[in-house]
Amino acid sequence: MRLTLSTKDYLNTYMADEYGQVCYTVSTIGFFNAKTTIYKVIGGSNDPEVLATIQWRSFGSDTVWFLGREIPGKELLTSRKKSSCVPAIFCGERDGLTFRGSSRFYTGPDGNTYKWKIQSTNCWLKLDGSPDQLAKYHQRNLGIRTPKHPPYLEVSESLFHMLDHVVVTFVCAEKASQRQLTNEVSSNAIVSTVIGVVAAC
To answer: Which residues contact residue 175 at a Cβ distance below 8 angstroms, ignoring those fewer than 6 apart?
Structure first.
């Protein structure tokens, strides 16, 4: 299944299936402490239902409301942190979705543990311990070297029973990916500055 995003902004978009039927809508308000609401569209209804709400926080843990529960971001998607020589302040450890590790783990409604592989482009999901990709985000391609296409989330049929979970955790995983990218750019800039200062001494 392919869920095509209407825009490259995954926090403000709608997701439509191969037939053009809108299945989910994502809307975000605010900036530093933004709030994202994910709506599920059922049967082409003009009155979509709220599937999940995510309160992002610049400092402190994000909060997710999903399936009638309030869940700390660090509990929805967990991280098995790896050691790093980069100072903690640049690793995004202030919140639950931005550890420096490259994977986030989620326990699905079927009891299985799934792993979102966090990358600066095209994060993807697999069953923990398996090499097979079950979902993958493809960012927009402008068609310069390869065929042009809008951004889309590709989902295996084996995950159709938990598609809502895939969509909600995708939004969280992509947010973690973007935060990690921002942190790495900031830390690299500071390291370069320090090296320049040392070299000038």
So the answer is: 11, 56, 97
9 alpha carbon, distance to own chain's centre: 12
Contact 123, 115 (CB under 8 A): no
Give percent of the chain with pLDDT exceeding 70. Answer: 79
> With contact defined as beta carbons under 8 Å apart, do 155 and 1 qualify?
yes
Q: Is the pLDDT of residue 197 over 90?
A: no
The string of DSSP letters for 17-45 reads -TTS-EEEEEEEE-STT-EEEEEE--TT-
Of 59, 90, 92, nearest in space to 191 by CA: 90
Residues in the chain: 201
Three-state DSSP class for 5? Answer: strand
The arithmetic mean of pLDDT across residues 128-137, rounded, is 95
The whole-angstrom separation of Cα 113 and Cα 106 is: 6
Buried b (16+ CB within 10 A) or exposed e, 13-46: bbbbeeeeebbbbbebeeeeeeebbbbbbeeeee
Helix or strand or coil: residue 138? strand
